[in-house]
Amino acid sequence: MTKFAPMPEPPYYAVIFANQASADLSGYDVMAEAMVAQASSQPGFLGIDSTRAGDGFGITISYWKDETSIRNWRDNLGHMAAQKLGMERWYDHYTLRIAKVERQYEGPEGRSARQ
Amino acid sequence: MTKFAPMPEPPYYAVIFANQASADLSGYDVMAEAMVAQASSQPGFLGIDSTRAGDGFGITISYWKDETSIRNWRDNLGHMAAQKLGMERWYDHYTLRIAKVERQYEGPEGRSARQ
Question: Is B4 in CB contact (< 8 Å) with chain A?
Fold first, then answer.
């Protein structure tokens, strides 16, 4: 289950990034890996859930302690450079939402015990 | 861009469902389609972003007007039946987070104009 982001006690923040990959993904893998490594080293980073279908539609959610952590990450220079390159070249379209996680559950282990 | 959920004015709510599909997905497609159709007909439903990679790791985010809409959806009988069946059979593991969307952006169209 290490694939799933950890679930610290709410409230905390989620950055919900939905995106359609473009036809030109040259350099994407290297930069994506570097960005995840960089995010992971930022104060307040809590985890990441990420997946992409064969048609190029991807969703990446990064979790953060608070809004300050998100702002600091955004202002990070390396991240900005990746943003400028990536947003124009790698994505046909994307949406980005900042949301405050208020409640959470997991399963199905122990599910019947909670009902 | 119809693939992306619409972006109404925040605040609104996101139900973030990350899941690892199990080996036994018999009946999954039919039920998943029915659940999306059912959610779409619920008051307060705003849209859905969903994707799944070849390894079975999926993320589905449904967006809702408020917490009451989410509660009503959850309490819907058909949805509950699907939950009970699905959570045990179709998913090896899942996480579910309820989050309040506070800010949002989209791009890359018009990105430079906003900087």
Answer: yes
Assigned token pair, A109? 């282990």
Q: Cα dist. B24→B13, B17, B63, B87 in Å?
A: 31, 19, 28, 12
Nearest by CB to residue A54, choosing from B54, B57, B97, is B54
Kindly state whether B51 is in contact with chain A, defined as any CB-CB distance less than 8 angstroms: yes
- Its pTM stands at 0.88
Q: What is the pLDDT of residues B45-67, one digit of tens each?
A: 999 999 999 999 999 999 999 99
The CATH fold assigned to A12-105 is: Alpha-Beta Plaits (3.30.70)
CATH of B22-105, one of 3.40.630.40, 3.30.70.100, 3.40.309.10, 3.40.50.170: 3.30.70.100
Structure tokens at B75: 């309490």
B31 touches chain A (CB under 8 A): no
Residue B48 amino acid letter:
I
